[in-house]
Write a structure and sequence with these properties.
Blueprint: H1 4-19, H2 28-35, H3 39-51, E1 55-56, E2 59-60, H4 71-74, H5 78-89, H6 95-108, H7 121-133, H8 143-155, H9 183-196, H10 199-211, H11 215-218, E3 226-232, E4 235-246, E5 251-257, H12 260-268, H13 281-298, H14 313-319, H15 321-336, H16 341-345, H17 352-359, H18 364-369, H19 391-402
Antiparallel strand pairs: 1-2, 3-4, 4-5
Helix pairs in contact: 1-3, 2-3, 6-8, 9-10, 10-15, 14-15
Length: about 400
């Protein structure tokens, strides 16, 4: 699900690595003839391997195996295969540990067995991890990497006891678990994106709002949607279903699309192409992030030229504007499904606790709204944060508001 382009690139890197192996590695012209690619293309990919230290200019670097630049090959390493089996026995998604472990090994250019190399393994692991941190972006949390090493060390039967460097507690205290946009603000966002950019960008925001994928997944996703129908009173309401693969968790999640505005656009989209086709995923992510910051400023979520400290909502709106939509969508889906965290979690989180602790914490208002349904039991004074008893009733309500009546 990572995309054909990504697969083609990895295949090319593997072949060039292969032809650079041995006592007499092939030259660029010979490789280009065999691969039936221009010399410039082969040279570009070979330079990536050289720059990464995987091969030397004169040939293969014997200390740099292929699995250090291919996540799938990394998972085939015998020690990692055993670790994956260990995670499965414990009922854990191995991807939340193997993926960050792969990143650590790749950055340090070492094999996973290095963490089990000597008797004083805790000090060795801490030293390696401190070296990894010197290569790390200080703006990002290292929590998932610490947890991966703690899990791996426990598997090796060398647990990191009382480590002050690779500690086990979470960095997050749920500071952003109440960050969200109201229904009215989402409507405004759709109108803003449609007016300032295009319908495709409005749809892209709708995908985040309805399906809450991570950005690296969303901009590569191709809109394959299965239509389903639910009967509510005298109407047959159309809803959409799809599946999204999240590499971070190494897992597929089933998603629902209830908003008829977004479903209509998805039905009209080419299922063989990404939604944004004019830009690379990285560029598209940057464009959307900047547009969201402008919108958040317009509606008063943040102020222009203000630098917010971590832990306050403004920091998330400013520094993670797209990720803010994942938080907002989590809150919205809790409202859509009668605050059933267990049900919402099945669509994108490892467990209900993760969802309610870090993304959509239950509030007093939620408790007061529990049992309400804006479709069959609307309040005398409605708010712009509608709640429902079920997905069918939410879909019926949205159809009355936004459905195509023609």
């Amino acid at each position: 699900m990572k995309g054909q382009k990504r697969k083609d690139q990895m295949d090319m890197l593997k072949l060039i690595h292969k032809y650079s192996t041995g006592e007499k590695p092939l030259g660029l012209k010979s490789m280009a003839q065999i691969l039936q690619k221009p010399v410039s293309v082969v040279g570009y990919y070979r330079k990536k391997l050289v720059d990464g230290g995987f091969i030397e200019k004169s040939g293969m670097n014997p200390n740099m195996p292929i699995w250090l630049f291919d996540r799938n090959e990394f998972r085939k390493v015998p020690l990692i295969q055993e670790f994956i089996a260990y995670c499965k026995r414990e009922g854990n998604d191995h991807g939340r540990y193997t993926n960050p472990l792969f990143t650590i090994c790749q950055r340090l250019q070492i094999g996973p067995s290095e963490f089990n190399a000597d008797e004083n393994s805790q000090q060795k692991t801490e030293d390696l991890y401190m070296k990894f941190l010197t290569m790390w972006d200080e703006k990002l949390t290292d929590e998932r990497y610490r947890k991966a090493l703690r899990k791996f060390s426990a598997f090796l039967k060398k647990p990191l006891t009382e480590s002050k460097i690779i500690y086990g507690k979470s960095d997050s205290k749920g500071d952003y678990a109440t960050v969200h946009l109201s229904d009215h603000e989402i409507d405004g966002l759709y109108n803003f994106m449609n007016k300032e950019l295009s319908t495709e960008w409005m749809l892209m925001v709708g995908v985040f709002n309805e399906m809450f994928p991570r950005p690296d997944v969303a901009f590569k996703w191709k809109p394959t949607v299965e239509l389903q129908y639910v009967d509510v009173d005298d109407d047959s309401i159309e809803i959409g279903g799809t599946s999204v693969f999240e590499p971070k968790q190494d897992k597929h999640y089933d998603k629902l699309i209830l908003d008829p505005r977004i479903l209509k656009l998805l039905k009209e989209s080419n299922p063989n192409k990404t939604i944004i086709t004019d830009y690379t995923p990285q560029k598209a992510e940057a464009i959307m992030a900047e547009a969201l910051r402008v919108y958040y400023t317009q509606i008063g979520k943040i102020e222009e030229d203000v630098k917010y400290d971590k832990g306050v909502p403004g920091w998330l709106y400013s520094n993670r504007p797209i990720y803010t939509l994942r938080h907002s969508s989590a809150t919205m889906w809790l409202r859509r499904l009668a605050f059933n965290a267990g049900l919402v979690a099945t669509m994108g989180w490892e467990d209900p606790k993760t969802l309610t602790t870090y993304y959509a914490r239950n509030t007093v208002n939620n408790i007061l709204q529990a049992g309400r349904c804006y479709y069959h039991n609307p309040p005398k004074t409605p708010t712009d944060k509608a709640v429902f008893c079920s997905a069918p009733h939410c879909a019926a309500y949205l159809y009355k508001l936004y459905g195509d009546k023609s």
